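Renewal narrative, Specific Aim 1. Our central claim is that a sequence can be written position by position from structural information alone. The example that follows is taken directly from our test logs and has not been curated for this report. It begins with the structure tokens describing the chain, in the order in which they were read.
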């Protein structure tokens, strides 16, 4: 079922459409939302709109598309489902074209069934056609049919676009810089997710199952108004934390072990992404404390490196130096920090980068390199949002001291690049003192 969105204004979406129209010249852009997906038999997965489509529209229903027509008289058109009282009885509210045009600020809105007929006339005799080629085979075919329909009318003067350009490339650049509306939604998602992680810490007891902590987090997300999980949560006790994408969440939690939880929620389509690692029994052992402090120091070094003008890789390099020094102090590596980084000797215990873009997608749109050269990383700018998530993972059986076997620690926060540095959205307990205090059971 689809519920009406809680939009106060369509202005942010209309503004983004206008910015895109300004980039199209005399071209036309066509963008569809995601289809509904069958889970099994006649049961569907909960519907989730396409992120690019949502970014430009805020329109939550399936079976919808946008056509943006550039030129001297630019206009934005929405194609969506008709009002249908019978289907609304079964599936819930539908706007219908007339109400949708007004509610979402479109120049026009039409039934989605009319798009096949109208598309050739909308794109004929204009500049480039902007489309996400290869993103959806069905829509690629629709575009091809529209182009062929125009070509079949060439003797009457109709001309098909001579060039098809990648719409996602333009939108990726736009989505890298978050506007005030997006920042507000992301702050709210981070606030709710932080509360979920705090709840899991308070609820945790030896002997619980991983899925019980998953349930605690999910409850807090929904209780506070999030749309749900932004991704499948990871609740990894003990050595399971050394599996980066562990999602089984079905093992019991041993009292002497750590548990790593990587979970975020979605608010108005925008994701949060938090990882916390804490002791199941409420108190860190000496070796757990030692490893945790290394990872926390690495995150603090990375956060200090997030600022305008820095390269995207800079904060990873800052975290890496601390982690490698920690591995040397833990007697896992020998030699110098520079030597271990150059040889990548650290990779068995730190195999991922220190973060990624965050927004409508957990791993959000946007390039990490400029394309000018292999080593030309994107420069950070105010409004960019990213995660900072160093970790160390000591899989059992590794060539490491026995007391480290099965220890996995990751600490992750969501960060906005500001004019003079960065702001951390997320505020779940993070220091050892904060974690042990919130987990006190007396």
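The sequence written for that structure reads:
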């Amino acid at each position: 079922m689809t519920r009406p969105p809680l939009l106060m204004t369509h202005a942010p979406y209309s503004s983004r459409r206008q910015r895109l129209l300004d980039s199209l010249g005399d071209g036309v852009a066509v963008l569809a939302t995601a289809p509904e997906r069958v889970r099994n038999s006649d049961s569907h997965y909960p519907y989730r709109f396409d992120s690019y489509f949502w970014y430009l529209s805020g329109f939550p229903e399936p079976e919808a598309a946008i056509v943006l027509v550039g030129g001297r008289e630019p206009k934005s058109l929405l194609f969506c489902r008709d009002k249908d009282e019978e289907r609304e009885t079964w599936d819930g509210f539908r706007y219908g074209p007339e109400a949708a045009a007004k509610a979402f600020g479109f120049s026009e809105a039409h039934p989605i069934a009319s798009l096949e007929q109208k598309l050739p006339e909308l794109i004929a005799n204009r500049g480039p056609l902007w489309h996400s080629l290869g993103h959806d085979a069905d829509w690629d075919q629709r575009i091809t049919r529209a182009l062929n329909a125009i070509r079949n009318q060439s003797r009457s003067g109709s001309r098909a676009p001579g060039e098809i350009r990648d719409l996602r490339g333009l939108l990726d650049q736009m989505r890298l810089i978050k506007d005030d509306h997006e920042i507000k939604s992301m702050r709210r998602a981070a606030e709710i997710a932080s509360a979920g992680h705090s709840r899991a810490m308070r609820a945790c007891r030896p002997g619980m199952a991983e899925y019980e902590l998953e349930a605690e987090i999910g409850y807090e997300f929904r209780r506070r108004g999030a749309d749900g999980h932004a991704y499948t949560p990871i609740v990894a006790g003990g050595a399971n934390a050394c599996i980066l994408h562990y999602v089984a969440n079905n093992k019991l939690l041993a009292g002497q072990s750590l548990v790593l939880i990587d979970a975020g929620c979605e608010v108005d389509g925008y994701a949060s992404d938090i990882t916390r690692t804490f002791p199941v029994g409420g108190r860190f052992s000496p070796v757990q404390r030692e490893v945790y402090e290394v990872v926390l120091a690495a995150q603090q070094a990375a956060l200090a490196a997030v600022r305008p003008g820095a390269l995207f890789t800079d904060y990873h390099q800052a975290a890496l130096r601390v982690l490698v020094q920690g591995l040397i102090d833990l007697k896992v590596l020998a030699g110098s920090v520079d030597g271990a980084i150059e040889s990548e000797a650290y990779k068995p215990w730190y195999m991922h980068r220190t973060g990624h873009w965050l927004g409508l997608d957990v791993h959000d749109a946007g390039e990490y390199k400029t394309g000018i050269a292999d080593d030309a990383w994107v420069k950070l700018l105010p409004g960019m949002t990213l995660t900072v998530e160093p970790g160390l993972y000591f899989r059992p059986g590794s060539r490491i001291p026995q007391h480290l076997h099965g220890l996995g620690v990751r600490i992750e926060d969501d960060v906005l690049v500001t004019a003079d540095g960065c702001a951390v959205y997320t505020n779940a307990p993070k220091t050892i003192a904060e974690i042990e205090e919130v987990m006190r059971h007396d």
